[in-house]
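User: Here's a structure from my thesis project, written as structure tokens. My advisor, Dr. K., wants to see whether a designed sequence matches the one we expressed. Can you design one independently, without my sequence as a hint?
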């Protein structure tokens, strides 16, 4: 998708007929096709849910292209010398809730910074968290994995509790605030 098209969407977010959803990680999302394969994301972490759980995997594989801004992608790996985390399987989406038993793992992280024009890919089972600069815009292309369509896993430091990032429809005020931040930061 051409950057000019995305810039037009950011400049007139209500004209395109997109349905914007707010995600508790401090991100707005708009599906760019009926199959929900391509998703436009605008990141403003200052608008995230208080104490939201950030380490997660997905019900799909994906490729994320940084359209504007910067994203630190932090991946987590099992390691006997790692920090202790608790986690659970969740139903993904608007009705998200924990299912199954609590799992405890020792994890270490590896960070990589991505800038405008760069991409990264992940498999559905890879744990990560996103640390974007405010106003970052990404375009995600998802590949659905049939056996894992409705579930994800979340992890948080032992002793804390899971705080959901479940999506909901975005308000007009949120759409205006996020798109304005993205336009201010466009390709800086």
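Assistant: Designed independently from the structure alone:
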């Amino acid at each position: 998708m051409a950057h000019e098209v995305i810039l037009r969407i950011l400049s007139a977010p209500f004209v395109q007929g997109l349905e914007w959803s707010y995600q508790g990680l401090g991100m707005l999302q708009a599906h760019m096709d009926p199959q929900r394969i391509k998703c436009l994301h605008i990141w403003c972490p200052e608008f995230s849910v208080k104490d939201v759980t950030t380490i997660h995997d997905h019900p799909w594989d994906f490729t994320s292209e940084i359209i504007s801004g910067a994203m630190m992608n932090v991946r987590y790996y099992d390691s006997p010398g790692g920090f202790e985390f608790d986690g659970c399987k969740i139903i993904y989406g608007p009705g998200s809730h924990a299912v199954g038993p609590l799992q405890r793992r020792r994890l270490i992280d590896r960070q990589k910074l991505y800038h405008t024009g760069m991409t990264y890919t992940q498999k559905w089972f890879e744990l990560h968290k996103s640390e974007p600069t405010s106003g970052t815009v990404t375009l995600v292309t998802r590949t659905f994995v049939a056996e894992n369509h409705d579930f994800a896993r979340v992890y948080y430091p032992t002793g804390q509790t899971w705080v959901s990032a479940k999506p909901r429809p975005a308000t007009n005020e949120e759409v205006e605030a996020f798109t304005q931040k993205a336009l201010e930061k466009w390709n800086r």
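When you compare it with your expressed construct, this may help: The chain has two helices and twelve strands.
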